[in-house]
Amino acid sequence: MEKNSFSNKIQLIQINKFGEILRTDNVLIELKIGENIFLLHPFFECLKDIVNDDFNGPKNIAFPCIAMEINEEKFICDITIKNERDLFVILLFNFSKHYQEVHKETQEKNRAMLKEQSYNFENRMKKKKD
User: Fold this and answer.
1) pLDDT by residue (tens digit) across 19-42?
2) What are phi and psi of 116, to 5 degrees?
3) Which of 70, 75, 107, 130 has an alpha carbon within 20 to 30 A of 116's alpha carbon?
4) How far, CA to CA in Å, does 118 sit from each of 63, 72, 102, 111, 114?
5) 32: number of CA atoms within 13 Å, CB side?
6) 42 — phi, psi (to 5°)?
7) Mean pLDDT throughout 107-116?
8) CA 105 remoteness from chain centre
């Protein structure tokens, strides 16, 4: 059976409240069982507060557009954290290509807008001189 188009873009990681990796499918990032997720990247360090017993926040938390470089590979991911009883599920959605395309389009729109504003400014300055 052919894998769907999302199977290579989503990584599932299960951790305990101490940040120890209990399970992972290693789709995006090669991780080892027993490693501490808090040490992987500064973003994951913020999870310490979320997995804390005193946390009174929602059971599911989403973090969009997180830029990370791990093992010399760059990702832009949406990250969801789910509280599942005594463990936590982290879902990494690799949207790098999408975010890069959006960024490129935004830059092109900004360039066009700046060019138009510059043209309008120059025209106003010429009219003031006349």
Assistant:
1) 999 999 988 899 999 999 999 999
2) -65, -45
3) 130
4) 37, 40, 24, 10, 6
5) 3
6) -55, -35
7) 75
8) 19
